[in-house]
Amino acid sequence: MRGARAQTRRGWIVAGVLVAGFAYRILFLLLPLSLDDDTTAYTELAHNWFRHGTYGFFNGRVIAPSLIRLPGYPLFLGAVFSVFGDHLRAALVIQALMDVTGCWLLWDLACKEVSRRAGWAVLLLAVFCPFTAVYAVTGLTESLSIFCVALAMWALARVTRAARERTKTLGPLLALSAAMAYGMLLRPDGVLLTAVFCAGVAWYGWRAVGVGRAVRLGVMAGVLAALPLIPWTIRNYRTFRVVQPLAPRYVNNPGEFVPAGFFRWMRTWSVNFVDAGTVFWNLNDQIDPEDVPARACSTEAQCRETEALIEEHNELGDVTPQLDAKFAALAAERIRERPLNYYLVLPLGRVADMWLWPRTERFPVSIWWWDIGDHPRDSAIAIGLGLLNLGYVGLAVWGFARRRVPFEAALLAYIVLRCILLGTMENPEQRYTMMMFPMVLLAGGCALARERIAPAAAEFAKVSTRGNGAAAGSG
């Protein structure tokens, strides 16, 4: 009886924390958060798809089909608009609800796989994390992608637990497949989650159900996750005559020119968020030559050529194929001179910047936050956010270093593969690391707990050891 009352009281406390977390996210709607052109694009795709039956953008009076964005987020927006009207805030409120649901999933995972102490730590870190909270009320794919990662982590734990307890795995396997499928429909990099977690099902299940069945479970999860991509792939082939199961890296429709030479040139020097904000985002506008840092050229001749190319770009207001070829030649010269810098040093620098730069992207804070004399308020906010981010990342590193994180092989594999991918990008933006924050929150909370493994898992390990020993002895 006492245990039931304690469990009920614990449930009410968790519910109270989640309600507080939801209110915390709604408060961010009152801030003058920066707008994003991608939000407008997703909204237009949703309207055209649900109202006119064409997935594309208006080109004059005609809707031109497009494949530059995956259909996951427009599908979500279109469904919300169909019920609540064209109110983006209704979609953001639902995102906030899903985000706190993701916090509960992480809490449940930590409680069952580590300890209640770890669960409470994870819950508080997740619920009051300003970085995930601000994206929950932003019309971008990040928040739903974060939820998909949290759901996949929770479902992987459930699949593994069901396997070792010899219970049905179908329910959690379907939840895992749904998380991976929608993650891929939201963002093309969602395929990393599918690859790693399908392998995780096989890796963590083979001790309980044998290698053969564990591999079959992993393959089944992957096949189910890939099914929703089939209609999208067929549509793209029928419309554009290309096989495109995800979305193109450079957000271009078939036949559209991509300034790959300009992007490659940027990767020879771009290393921080300011480079993205002042140069990359101004690709179709005016680039201030003063915003191109000194590391963009290593000789006097390169500096003169760089200035000439920027001037030509500003005169045209765009990058033509001819100008792009010049940027490509300059990039090739710089890569030949310093290949290690291009292939290793700068990618590591970009990844470090995405992790450690103050997460001010969604806040009304100047991009030049370190100029304290010019805007002391913005500087104080940025420094505070930067220190808080360091705290979250530091706790996560501590949790992994002390081997306190469940399913650490799968989680670390996802983090490593995603960081490798991020290193290849020319526009380092902090939001690209947000999909790894469920791992950060789980690892950070586990770092604050004493236990390294839940009692049930420990008992399973003992039973498996005894069973293997008995089998060896009887042989």
The number of distinct helices, counting runs of at least 4 residues, comes to 20
Distance between the termini: 48 Å
Assess the beta-strand content as a share of residues: under 5%
Low-confidence stretches: 455-475
Across the major sheet, the strand order is 1-2
Give the ordered list of helices and strands. HHEEHHHHHHHHHHHHHHHHHH
Structural class: mainly alpha
The global form is: globular
Average pLDDT, rounded to a whole number, is 91
Number of β-strand runs = 2
**Rg estimate, integer Å:** 24 Å
Largest sheet entry: 2 strands, antiparallel
The amount of helix comes to 55-70%
Description:
This protein has helices at 2-27, 37-52, 72-84, 88-113, 116-127, 130-136, 142-164, 170-186, 190-209, 211-226, 229-240, 260-267, 273-278, 300-316, 321-337, 339-356, 376-401, 408-423, 437-447, 455-474, and strands at 56-59, 62-65. The chain is mainly α. It has a domain at 260-355. A two-stranded antiparallel ribbon has the order 1-2. Strand 1 and strand 2 form a beta hairpin. Helix 15 crosses helix 16. The longest helix is centred in the first third of the chain and has 26 residues, at 2-27. The chain is globular and about 75 Å long. The protein starts with a helix and ends with a helix. Residues 455-475 have low confidence and may be disordered.
Keywords:
two-stranded antiparallel ribbon, 2% strand, 475 residues, mainly alpha
